[in-house]
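Dear Dr. L.,

I hope this message finds you well. Following up on our conversation about the binding site, I have prepared a predicted three-dimensional model of the protein together with iron/sulfur cluster. For your records, I am including the exact sequence and ligand specification that went into the calculation, followed by the structure tokens. Please feel free to forward this to your student if that is useful.
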Amino acid sequence: MSAVETACTYDCPDACALLVERRDGEMNLRGHPDHPITRGFVCRRVRNHPGRLRSPQRITRPLQRQGSSFQEIDWDRALDLVAAGLERALQETPASVVLVPGGGSLGLRKLLVDHFFHSLGPITRLGGGVCDETGAAAQRLDFGDKCAHDYSDLENTGAIVLWGRNPAVGAVHLVPFIKQARRRGCPVVLIDLWPNQSRALADRFIRVRPGADAQLAQAVLKLLDADGRLSAAAAARCQGVYELRTLLEATSLAELVSACGVELADVEYLAGLYAGGPVATHIGWGLQRRSSGGLAIRWIDALCALSGQVGTSGGGASYNPGRRRGLDTSLLARPSGRVVEASRFAEQLAALVDPPAHFVYLYGVNAVSQFADSQAVAAALRGAGLVVVAEAFLTDTAACADLVLPVSLMLEDEYDLVGSYGHHWVARARRAVDPPAGVKEDVEIVRLVRRRLGLADDPLLEDVAATLERMSRPWFNGDEPFTRNPCQPPVPFAERFATASGKVQLVGERPPAPPRPDPRYPLLLLSPKRRRFAHSQIPPGEMERPWPCLLNPRAPGLDEIPPGSRVRLVGELGAMEVKLLFREDLPRDLCLVPEGGWLAQDTAVNKLVAARATDLGGGTAFYDQQVRLEPIDDQGR
Ligand code: SF4
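The resulting structure of the complex is given below.
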């Protein structure tokens, strides 16, 4: 049997093209060798995917809540219940319907589920998010649009700065391009709070103090400005140069260096790189998950722009090229209703009045695990009207539902499209394996619900492949499995910026001083991604308990933990037992607890994270949370 050419729709910037073969009931899944980014290999997350498809824990029949448990029901009954609940809510007002989509799949067929709900009227929708919204909003202010160079543009660079980026975990297909550039003598600098897994890729590691990335960018800018090394041509493409210089003059270099906690020699080294060039700056997502994360990105953008790195081949302030760029979405219904912000989801969902949430539909999202203040999210969902969750597993979020609808997973959907939020390639995803009996595709579910509402068939939902083909006409020439998105400019902003003036709108605001740690909670809690699993898509049998916590062996509070005792992390919202792991090279005031755990297993780190919004784009300030260590006594207290 010939291999199926398909694509990975996991929440990952690499958007790999895949080849899948079935032989003797076994699935052989590999990276497409002809795709210039995938280059024939896939990551551990997707190597685990066949096991996820075959998992005995998959839900294959709809579930209806019966008190504290669920009862299996047939699809007719489930769809009748969904349609009846939706109809009741619509009769009151569309605003009583709340739609919560997620990033469980980046496949663009999801847009058709959103289209169905938005075609019903001004429903309530999710605003902001838990991902990259803050940085994207910052780049829209600065450049008029978010941007990123293709990975292959590293062939043209003179230096690489990974600013809070960790490609060894988060974008493994960027790694060969970095190594290639390094082999030809291009220096690689990693700037982060800790020497992350990409440290081995870098010639120099610069540790920045938490919340002080903007001050580091300011310090480099100040040095460049003082030495007359800023690009006059670049300044002519910017608005707000005078105001920015005024801000720089208001703070001494010594104050900035002290605030960011970086050696002056490192600031001078960075100034030397940015004065030369081209420098490819790849900005990570972690640093914008703070209350002043938007300003941090804006100051890094300002450094890249004023040093002449933006609009230049081999340069760039690469963050996200926009995975839907050029996609024709004009045929889809537009969202127009009120918003519940993801960053404060629990509070805002519970506070909805006139009307309250009568019908909540969640799909592709494990909101309880992934949103801040997990316990409050679970409570808010339990307190809402009819909660319907389209899911493949009984996640924390599904456990809060009144109805759970079993859905197909990646490689099982008939047809999909995926764009990348890292590089410039787009790909088609086709069914490579049949879904198990009893599960349905997400669009099929809403198509059947629509019929039960007595509405005329929507041609966009009737033939998903045809609709997606229409939408992606700007991308493909024929039936090729992947292509470089012709709507992505190879060098973003080479001619003009996307702002109204056509120029960079430089940041005009000084960042707040990095917060002083609260002595009651001396550890800053970070929740990085893991190599093996995508977010909370962890098979329940593989959940480590207690959940790991990585920290310095001399971290504050450790000396009060009796040897051999169980340990918990305690924050303002509660506590969670952890298993301590140590790394000498971690800063003493950090602890790293992976994201993706589940509340039901006491591994959901977001139960410790208070719901706070960032300064831009409705992002979630996950990385503002302080915690402390405590021993657990013999009684488990
Ligand atoms: S998760 Fe990312 S790296 Fe892994 S196969 Fe999918 S797109 Fe590629």
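In brief: The longest strand covers residues 574-582.

With kind regards,
A. P.
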